[in-house]
Amino acid sequence: xxxxxxxxxxxxxxxxxxxxxxxxxxxxxxxxxxxxxxxxxxxxxxxxxxxxxxxxxxxxxxxxxxxxxxxxxxxxxxxxxxxxxxxxxxxxxxxxxxxxxxxxxxxxxxxxxxxxxxxxxxxxxxxxxxxxxxxxxxxxxxxxxxxxxxxxxxxxxxxxxxxxxxxxxxxxxxxxxxxxxxxxxxxxxxxxxxxxxxxxxxxxxxxxxxxxxxxxxxxxxxxxxxxxxxxxxxxxxxxxxxxxxxxxxxxxxxxxxxxxxxxxxxxxxxxxxxxxxxxxxxxxxxxxxxxxxxxxxxxxxxxxxxxxxxxxxxxxxxxxxxxxxxxxxxxxxxxxxxxxxxxxxxxxxxxxxxxxxxxxxxxxxxxxxxxxxxxxxxxxxxxxxxxxxxxxxxxxxxxxxxxxxxxxxxxxxxxxxxxxxxxxx
Length: 425
Prior knowledge:
Blueprint: H1 8-41, H2 45-73, H3 75-92, H4 99-113, H5 115-127, H6 130-162, H7 166-185, H8 197-204, H9 216-219, H10 223-253, H11 258-264, H12 267-288, H13 293-308, H14 311-316, H15 320-348, H16 351-382, H17 386-406, H18 421-424
């Protein structure tokens, strides 16, 4: 085996981490500048919720086409297209002047950004053995929090120095640069010119033999698919709520201005990044010590869901310090849970189906992601943030219950031929 820095799979993972960072900087561009835009365009909380909901609707609409693209045309083409597509949409935000224009562009952005996860999960399942996959997913998924750490200070500085238009243009340019790097450097393991025989053997040692891709209708006949879809439907909107509404919450409820948002709003996402990596590392350690995959996932996802209950404490906090402290715990727990939730897809489905199953979960998450921002805006306008935080506290636990009560053991789904029982087990 080559030295660590010479092992190709970690280089590939570094590119996935980088694109996820860019994805979430793009995603947060609107939320960081929202206090200024809302005052300039006279937008209510309901209006802002509509714009956020349009993004989530775009994510839902784009999930399956992107998943199909990743499975059928490969991730070299698929991820290159997705990143160029969403980067163009994000750049055009600089020219928007109304709620309808922002909502339309957010929808476009969502149709591309959803490809990050269906493509990334497929790359991880192709390049990493089972015992390393959760750590790889944790690192790759950690890019969501790393991007959210970078976004508030970077975008606040760009806005204060050059105007809010720059907060959309610069991240978009970074996405186009990444697409060029990916196209030039990525190849599947069987075709990579620099992959050593030793690393190739290590990657494929515990791999299920390749089969023809199972039909989507066969995937939808499996309870495993519906269980993980239900889980993501309940878990996903919580982190989106914090990503899109945290700057607004701090601005309206605790008196932060754009400068203080830039100084402090990144802190919870640092804890989220730690949680993502720790969730993958802890699961890997437990499995290496003899725990079954199912038992390790139950423990790590349950622990993460317990941390998410601290959203209740956020609602009751009178000071910004305590509110931020509890939000840090929530995001640590959420990503600790999420790293294992995404890994469970490759626990239950063959690599040939991972892109589409991830896309199906994204559709489910997108459906709740459309409803939750609209509901948030209406609840905040009519009542306060308190009922929203109550919902955010309980949804991750309900998602875990939906998964583990439906699927008692996380093992390969017996997707109707061509995945045979002998291959699946």
